[in-house]
């Protein structure tokens, strides 16, 4: 194997040139409404998501964060308004070039290694040796090398979540959505997930990450999109948000006053 190939196989996610339209990393959200059970659960959201920053979504339980993430990923159809990625409507076409890590990990009933191999095989252009090297590098990056042959369903919650993350990265997404991926994980698992997310971001993956953990926002985030009652109340850089959020909803949330 040439040096170049070895280096590439070891990298978590291949670098992509900035401004590559195929990345679909710029989202325009206009007048977005999602209604169910007679309630406007997403109640008129206008938002621009830019390729660069790690975007953290915060807000109280039931604010509509997970629904917004599903709408961005084209898993739900808006009642009205629109989500487009570089001008392309969010849906089956855009979703193929993005990946999502759910709060409850979604895994196949096979070994840890086979879970990653399955995703790598869907990608063209790699021979078997390259796939195995890349799988091993991904497993190593989140401390799962010793679990490779074990059935995925026997992993602990934190291990399953780390596997779900590298499965998402194996698909080489332009955008990675994460819905509270570290809720109820121990500090070591949290750190491994944050490191893998940071590394993916450095390689050019757009990150959109839901969390309730302000410490995590400070460690990982560049900007915060704050939601309350189905609306976005502010989109603010992390330093500004941490020192003084602009919306009264975010201020109440950070000070532990309930916003419902
Ligand atoms: N398909 C649905 N039909 C009816 N109501 C729904 C549906 N999906 C979600 N909801 C409601 O929409 C609201 C927003 O849900 P969502 O899951 O987006 O909240 P969230 O901000 O992610 O909260 P959490 O922090 O608890 O995860 C909740 O009140 C939820 O019960
Ligand atoms: Mg949620």
**CATH homologous superfamily title:** P-loop containing nucleotide triphosphate hydrolases
Structural class by SSE content: alpha/beta
Quote the beta fraction.
15-25%
Number of continuous helical runs: 10
Based on the coordinates given, report the CATH architecture.
3-Layer(aba) Sandwich
Characterize the structure shown.
This protein is of the alpha/beta class and 260 residues long. It has one domain: P-loop containing nucleotide triphosphate hydrolases (Rossmann fold, 3-Layer(aba) Sandwich), CATH 3.40.50.300. The chain is 37% helix and 23% strand. The chain has helices at 3-10, 65-72, 92-95, 112-122, 128-141, 157-170, 187-202, 214-220, 238-243, 248-254, and strands at residues 27-36, 39-49, 55-58, 80-85, 88-89, 98-101, 175-179, 206-210, 223-228, 231-237. A hairpin with a 2-residue loop joins strand 1 (27-36) and strand 2 (39-49). Helix 1 crosses helix 5, helix 5 (128-141) crosses helix 6 and helix 6 packs parallel to helix 7. The chain starts with a helix and ends in a 6-residue tail after the last helix. Mean pLDDT is 90; it is low at 1-19. The structure holds adenosine-5'-triphosphate and magnesium ion. Magnesium ion (MG) binds at residues 65-66, 179.
């Amino acid at each position: 194997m040439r040096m170049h190939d070895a280096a590439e196989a070891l990298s978590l996610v291949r670098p992509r040139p900035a401004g590559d339209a195929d990345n679909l990393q710029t989202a325009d959200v206009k007048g977005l409404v999602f209604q169910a059970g007679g309630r406007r659960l997403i109640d008129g959201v206008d938002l621009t998501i830019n390729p660069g920053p790690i975007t953290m979504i915060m807000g109280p339980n039931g604010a509509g964060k997970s629904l917004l993430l599903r709408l961005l990923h084209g898993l739900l159809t808006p009642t009205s308004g629109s989500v487009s990625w570089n001008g392309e409507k969010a849906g089956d076409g855009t979703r193929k070039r993005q990946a999502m890590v759910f709060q409850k990990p979604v895994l196949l009933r096979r070994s840890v290694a086979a879970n990653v191999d399955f995703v790598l095989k869907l990608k063209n252009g790699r021979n078997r040796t390259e796939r195995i090297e890349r799988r091993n590098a991904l497993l190593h990056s989140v401390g799962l090398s010793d679990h490779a042959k074990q059935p995925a369903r026997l992993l602990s919650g934190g291990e399953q979540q780390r596997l779900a993350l590298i499965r998402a990265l194996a698909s080489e997404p332009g955008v990675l959505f994460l819905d509270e991926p570290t809720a109820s994980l121990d500090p070591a698992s949290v750190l491994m997930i944050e490191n893998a997310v940071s590394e993916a971001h450095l390689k050019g993956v757009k990150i959109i990450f839901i969390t309730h953990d302000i410490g995590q926002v400070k460690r990982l985030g560049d900007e915060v999109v704050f939601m309350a009652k189905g609306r976005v109340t502010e989109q603010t850089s992390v330093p500004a948000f941490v020192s003084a959020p602009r919306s009264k909803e975010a201020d109440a949330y950070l000070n532990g006053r309930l916003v419902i």
